[in-house]
Queue: 2 jobs
Job 1
Amino acid sequence: MPSVAVEPAAAFTVPVPRGRGRQDWRSALFVAPYLLVFVAMLVVPLAMGMWLSTTKGDLFGTERWVGLANFVRLFGDAIFLKAVANTFYFVLLTVPFLTLAGLGLALVLNRQERWAAVLRTIFFASTVLSVTVVTLVWRLVFLPDGGLLGVTAEALGKTPIAFLNDERLAMPAIAVTTIWWCIGLPMVLFLAALQQVPRDLYEAAALDNASRWTTLTRITLPAIKRTFFLVIIIEVILQFQLFGQPQLMTLGGPNNSTRPIVLFIYEAGWRQWELGYAAAAAQVLFAMILIAAMVQYRLSSGKEAA
Amino acid sequence: MRWGWLLPLAALLAGCSDAKPDKTRLVIQRFFGACEAEYGRVTDIAAAEGECGIMTAMINRFEAENPDIDVVENIVFWPGYDQLTAQLAANDAPDLVTMHGSVISDYQARGLLEPLDADLTAIGAPPASFTSAARAAVTVDGHAWGLPIDTWAPLWHINMNLFRKAGLVRGGKPVLPRSPQELFAQAQQFRARTGKPYLVQGTANEYAGFTRNFYTFVMQQDAAPFEGGRANFRTAAGRNALQLFRTIYERDFTTKNQDYSAAVAGFLKGDGGVFLVGTWMVGTFDAESRKTSGALANGGYTVVPYPKLFARETTFADGHNWVMPRNNRRTPEERAAGVRFLKFFAGHARHWARTGHLPAFQAIIDSPEWRALPHRDNLATLATTAQPLPKDVRRQFPIETIVGTEAAAAISGAKPIDQTLSDMERRVNAVLDNL
Amino acid sequence: MTRSRLATGLVILAAVLMLVPLLWVLALSLKDNAELMTDTASVFNGRFTLENYRNLFGNGDVFRWIANSLIVSFGMTAGVLMLASLAGYGFARLEFPGRNLLFVVVLLGLAVPEQAVIIARHQMFSWLGMHNSYPALILPGLSAPFGVFLMTQYFRAIPRDIDEAALLDGASRFTIFWKLLLPLTIPAQATLGIFTFLSAWNDYWWPLISATNKDMFTLTVGIASTQMNFAQTEGLGFLMAQAVFAGAPMLIVYLFFQKYIVQAVAGAAGR
């Protein structure tokens, strides 16, 4: 390939290694641009946030260093502990369903036909709406007095249920809203993965007269295992950061049953101007996501090794 | 570069925001929404309608009358405080900002607002000319920190057609309760004769209304919800205020499960007799009562302040104000341009009164023009009876949500009243103690 | 066969459930606001108007906000695809000192919630005096580790013999990356592109506090700013018209990227 030498990227050219495993610092140039942004935009602010979590102050200045006092206060704060519980509950309500339903949709809609393309677009369409609109529409759905479900219930001669005003039903209602809004992304991720499964595997299976079920469990699922865990990790991370839906639908109520951690952080930092306290809560959230993601990652790499 | 075409576009866009060199830039940041499609070119303030329309027309007019000032109108999503806080932290605050009276002391206490006493006097709008409610809203530590735009308070919006049917109209005026017992009796009568609840309230996923009612009826009992900058809710007055609405809820004297929008639609459809909502709806409902069909048709609407159910005639109130945030980079010319806008606004304040909000200037309230506006005669007393929370209570915004959510739990019966009051007080004081 | 029919039937049923709220949004956007205020069920009486869309375009700022959103979203998408592909290839295929440790650190970055860094980021851009600029809106999004994670996964899934054969032919690392492997990752690029464009387009928090100057508003922030306090009551139709309008470019982008996914599949099938 004679054109290689004149390419501006010639700086990236490395000598042909004599085999795998040869280390070369110049290879790091591929990852350097990203790492630069990563450090500047993520690592440094995170470190600053950790420092802020040990101070008392607002956005206009730090008042004093308070050590771990913010964390001590957090773990004695019933509202925060409730927010932690609410967050876990919400993740459990949404992540398994989003993953499995996204996989199911992708399996059914992974075809070339026109109707499949139309359905894919429908399932993705809700994802393009902003949280403001999604929550407004679903408030109109859930509203007992004149809402979609309320009108339907009355037409059937039943008493409408006040979903968002009921302590036990408000979080499931928010979960339904979220699933409607977010189902498009796992579906797209699974579709992309399915399309990477080599065709010849299926051809071989067809020659062996393998049943659809066998093809699914022996070929398809093992081939997209990485994506399966990827989707779970992504969804765990996204849903742990639940914020807009309860902020706009319930304000964390009724009786604090729908306040997640990020809403707590927002209220502490931007409404009550307690920056240090908010930063401490953010670190706790970080630790929680980290543990959840690491458990997932361990599980996935463990299974891969097996 | 596949994205190279973006660069000239970006340069083009950056180019059109260049400031006009011979003009003073005045950045006005406000809520009340955008209505450029309808009012973008309107400079005749008298022809504009509604908060957004009147505000837009006023700013257009000011720009037309002051060719040496380049007004940059930065409209922000209600209430815009997150943005303002971010701007102040970046030392890039606008020259004038709309701010609720209940929020002023938060920014004032951190030295983020400019005192405006001398300017207000110089432009002929000294604090002495404000109503007592408006003056209280902008005054902290003896200084005025803003020009009040208006005062608003929750009101009793009455469906007179239903009141007549319920036998609650005497001499063309609505019969109003003078005690909780009278309220229950009248609500009972209303229910018996019309088959409908007495009150319409937007209570689903809305908590501000609960807070306003709680503050109002605590204050009506000559008690203070806050004392010395701390919450004081575990009182007989606090209990009575919650019990009042608990009973109303229990005995089905109110609509339930309506959110704000549903409650507005419900009142317009005749769902109940009295709608508890603020001054901003007066114009809408009045227009509806001039039609010949609908639940409020043929003059079937009036509005009054909250009736006196306990010892004292008073209503919790808040209001909108213009404030000038600190900005080290603001030139004296820019500051002067801001003060000129305040002068212009004060001079045209009578137009703002058409929004339904209570005027901030006593002279306007006393003027025949204002009295001639629909229902304003009923509302004039608010100038003296409307009462904001004391200025030593900071963080009133988040406190409103805490009080409202807790009160909602007690009123719906999810939590006993005494426990609610102590939870409410503990949570509010946790906020105030950590300032 | 019956089981497959059942699955298809279920999916179609689910699609109808998905569609109902969407059609409702569309219908509300075509209704007169005053009529909606008294009764949201008036959607069914068949009287529709384009008034809300006229009002939307009557606000001259809207076009500037769209341009801003397009610049930010395309800029962020291009940047993420570039950085993530390079880094993904580097982590998946190359050996350099500290590689595994660095990769683990990047993975840990996945767990960082936006709220844990947003205030410090705001302070950093304040010190640099960079708020109200395109770099301020784009740069933070480039640091998201999701893209690197995704691309590393995909590069690892590509059989090694492809690049080893090329190495023996004397091709450079960059040539292998650019000419051989990158085309194979198009489905992943499309997925990452959709994901990045989507999060950039709908991002609200960072633009709200960084782009505080009207000329720099993105569409989400700009549209929110035009709403009155009680927009849901007084301007429901207008609000929905804004939603349709803001969502439409996203759908177009999705359809565009989807075509690429399908083309890539068609190519793979013909191989």
Job 2
Amino acid sequence: MDRIVEHLWIIPALPLLAAGIIALLKRPHRKAAAALAIGSLGLAFLVSCVAFAATLHPAAGAGTVRLTHNFAWFDLGESTLRLGWLLDPLTAGMLVMVTFVGSLIFVFSVGYMAHDPNFTRFFGFLSLFAAAMLGLLVANNLLFLFMCWEVVGLASYLLIGFWFQKPEAAAAAKKAFVTTRIGDLGFFLGMVWLYHGTGTLLFYDKGAGCLEQGAIASLVAQTTLGGMAVSTAISLLLFCGAAGKSGQVPLHVWLPDAMEGPTPVSALIHAATMVAAGVFLVARVFPLLGASAAGLPADGHVPHTAALAVVTWIGAITAVFGALVAVAQSDIKRILAYSTVSQLGYMMMGLGVGGPAVGMFHLLAHAFFKALLFLGAGSVIHGCHGEQDIRRMGGLRKAMPATFATYAVGMMALAGFPLVFSGFWSKDEILHAALAWSPSRLPFALGLFGAFLTAFYMIRQMWFVFFAPSAHPAARHGHDTRPDAAAPHDSPPVMTVSLAILAGATVAMSLLATPVWPWFHAYLGGHLDHLHVGWDADGAVLATMALSTVAVALGTGVSWRLYSRSATGTDAVERLVPRLFGALRGRLYVDGFYAATVFRLNRAAATAFDWIDRFVWGSLAGSTAWIATGFSWLGRLLDDAGINPGFDAGCAGTRGTGRLVSLFQNGQTQRYLRLVGGGIVAIVVAVAWTGKK
Amino acid sequence: MTPFPLITFLTLTPVVGALVLALAGGRDARRSRNIALGFSLLAFLETAWMVAGFDGKSAALQFAEHHPWIPSLGAEYFVAVDGLSILMVLLSALLVPFAIGVGPGNVDRPHAFHALVLLLQAGLFGAFTALNFFHWFLYWELSLVPAYFLVKLWGGPGRRAAATQFFVYTFAGSVAMLLAMQAVFLATGTFDLPDLARLARSGELARGLGTKLHWTGLAPEALGMLLFAGVFLGLAVKVPLMPFHTWLPGTYAEAPTNVTMLLTGALSKMGIYGFLRILAPIFPSQLRDSLDLLTALAVLTVVASAFAAFAQKDLKRLLAYSSINHLGLCLLGLFAALQPKAAAAAHGWSIERVAALDGVLLQVFNHGLTAAALFGFVALIERRSGGLRGIGDFGGLRGVAPVFAGLMGISIFASLGLPGLNGFVGEFLVFKGAFPLAPVAASVSALGLLLTAIFLLTLVQRVFAGTLNGAWKDFPDLGRAELAVFAPAVALMFVLGVAPQLALNLVNPTVVALVNRLGF
């Protein structure tokens, strides 16, 4: 067992190595690059499975499997900064998901990016992205996690801006990096505070780690500004980072813009990696967030702490916000992007009300079906020759049967159609936990409303893309049998096979967290040996299931009715409530608000500081220089008056005054130097004189 | 048998090089460049030898040479290296061949140019190894003079004004420092820096000010503060600390770009070094009394320079402000490390002080490397564009010069502190120390980290991304020779990002000893 954790670094190292080799490859080595990237991640998947297997069988009575391996990085004063690897169910589950979904996205990319001149570079960046994400997962040290976290940010920057010739892509890449870095500042400060408060950044270190009893108890006992416990303050700072990375309101603005990257990148960012990192971080430091005067959060019981309340509220607001905005978008990827914002809100809310198992299961389920949806969208875009506006698609059900079938699975999972889709069970758990959350029922109501909206906007999208009368000229005249290059077509097998596998996984996932067999809870909680098949759920579970089913059915029904009967041209909702639709379409003006406030403030500050620099400090320095120059002119005048007359007389006017002046101007600094030399000598002599006495 | 006088030998190597150039350089650019490169590489090898022989576990002065010189003046020839100086010496030894490799382009009198660069290096080596104020100051000035002439004779269109401002500013600071140290000498009778630090600790310095300098009519406290202010001024101008910085953007912009590499990479570090070697040990109580003001100035430096960088259109001015920002972080860490704290706190503060100072020294080295590389890339851009270097003059260069864009991009990410590259660990350690010791100052300064990311990424966006500016469709990518110059620098960024212990282990024991000596 220990040997596995000692060698856990192999998992991130494999794609990192691939990224390094690909970086040195020349452009034409396309096949080698793709093979390296896919091969290394596939291998990482296999190693992850081995690691996963090791977490399945805890020693009797030991609870959760938690293996660590720590080692020194550098000496700091008389102590040592140590890094380490950590293998527990949280890490193992994520490892398997990231490598599995990642591999499928890589394979899909081979088809999607086939015509791109920078194909080789693309696979290098993808591998770097995967490596950073995997490094983040295996970290047993918050510092190492943060380092990988930032590299994830870099890789997303490179990939979002992959088509760097497009000014929008370059702008979106910068926006993503900067917005997440705003959150990262909080993360950074929280981290150094945690380091100071506990003396270590190792999560687990045989009782001495920063997430273990002793350290957390001391953090809870200290208070800081406003009587807040230090543990709460640190938790909130760390959550800033998570909110930035996981697109929580108000730091969500980068996420929809990240659509400027190639579609497989969107799938990777929105499903398996970047956004998952924030949720993972909250799950990882959950003992800190959930710490109260009563101690660490016990398994199965989620305490009500201030930090978790913030997580819950931010999550609930984000869930509804994202769903609302998604209703009025018409870019196929942008709808999915806002749905990601919304789903991330659900995950955070799940963590806040139900703990890691609830939030993480939605993360894993979402990773599969959102990857499926994005790749499906990619397939649609590929098949429609780059078209992204759903209003100009339509009728693709017939033209792209494989894409349609798999997309429908993803859509039903996202919308939470009952029983056989993972999204139903994972969202249900969140709602169930929210129902039991004693501080307020409002998050539950928001969650339910979000479920209704989700079904609504996904049906709207399905209708426009697959069912509406085709907007394509070639398809208007019945089924077009000619191999017309311009007609929509299904994607090549290298792309559809990934879709099929993800669709299968989406359905299969639904078996893991039903009330009948809550395997995932038992796995994360470390009591797999007590797991049995049976119905021991209470009435609240059934009530939640019923309510969410009703919400989904309502959303589906209303949406279908509205759209299937509406004439093409305008949007049904737009006709009903044009002003609300306009506001939603304008993303509730958050971006505009930032542009009007933060950006402008920033520019004003820049101008102000530049101005101060040039004119205030500059003129101070300038006047000083003038005074100095004045003194030297005074010196010159004295020279002229006192010394030069005799000299001039001696030379009998052989020197022109003009020449003299130019000499002075050219040699001003040399003159300073001479003065300095003279001054130093004078001081030295004076000192020597006094020294003798 | 006395040990080999390695430090003297090292300091003389570039001097000999300069002499050879002056006598035999001729007007052939390639030849003088090769001679200069040869001598600077020789100096680098000597430094490498020194680093290899340096005992990283010891806080003691090593490779010391101690000879009487002018006893009546307190002048002894005393040179050595310890953890404070070893990285600075190494940095000087690395950057000079780097700058010569980047080259000044086509210049008049290349032999004179390169001779001055080598003299500058001799000044750097001397200033980082001298432990007697007498010749420390000579070297300090010696590095100033070649820099002045390099700017004045080979700089851009505004060179004359820039050079004069540079000179007046740094010179005024130097005079203030010299006078203050003269007074210290009168009070103590020694110029020996370790001795002075000892006298300051034992209180003899303060007593000496009272007894030997009573004729000034000033109370010892006031006199101490005045002398502190004099030395401080000399150092603050050099680093620079705002508002003593106005010489810098103009000078950096007008200097030949490969000289800017040295100005920011190595010369600015003399200021930080002076804070650690002279100011903090000799004037600890005065420093502590003015710490709030100084910390506030450091925060101002970090934030204001980052904002000012935004408003710059000239790449060199932008990077100049970025340099001020990075050095401001060094000063923040330094001042935070000296912050008095109640001894009875739950956790020892000394670990935080050590972290901050370790971070400062690491940041000094890393900034030297990264900033020099960035200015080096700008030098190449200027050479390819016929002198243009406005942020809006380009666009889409990544399409035509991918390797160039990649390597400069790596340097930019190193500069904004991306983990895995060299800049991060230093920043982390500075904040690890500074945040607990001076929470408000550190939190406000963290804003600087964000702003740095924004303006540096804006640079990337404007210069490298977007549609290709038609004027540069033949912009050449990095050539083989250029790659040979830049690849080692970029490789070093990776190495120090992953294995910062290579540098940290050299300095850590000295820093621990320093913190213990300063005694809080």
